[in-house]
Specification:
Elements: E1 22-23, H1 24-46, H2 50-64, E2 70-71, H3 74-90, H4 112-117, H5 120-131, H6 134-144, H7 149-156, H8 160-178, H9 180-193
Antiparallel strand pairs: 1-2
Length: 194
Amino acid sequence: MEDAGSGELSVAEPLETASVALPGRELAEELHHAEYPALVRFLLLHGASWAEAQDAAQDAFTQMCTPGLSIAYPKAWLRTVAFRAWVRQQVKPEDACAELPEPRGVMRWQTPAHAAEVGEEERRVITLLLQLPAKQRAAMAWHLDGFTTQESARAMSTTQAAVRQNLTRARAALKAGLGLEADHAGEESRGNDE
């Protein structure tokens, strides 16, 4: 562990590094077991239902098997394709120019087993995540999946500054929604009174 006073900042390691692009089918076989649950969770954090998330994730793996397809950043590619598949599920052809629908503020995606495992605090956090604006929710979903701001920005087709700003706003909204700002301010004022 480094000393706090060393003056060196540690930079987060990228989740993926560009490597020799493998054929999509080989990647799908290699990644399906490890990435499928994370991909479903990623979509759930965007507001997808359990069934919608599973369908979109499976669609992404199916598209990965397209003959002749080579993918340099498979984890980011999977999330981008799965997100687009989920959006296609949400938008009817006659509403093709419509905005992405906002998710419902209630959790509707648990399996019976997952519902038993999710604690009250986690339910509150997820409910607050689903109430965030779409860009903040997207930035937080990429962040929670372990992607750096650079990787998130590339996948979201935006700048790193925009991703950082959306993460900051999302964190502030989550803190406010959980009442953490008020608790922290109360502790400081009690410390000053002593």
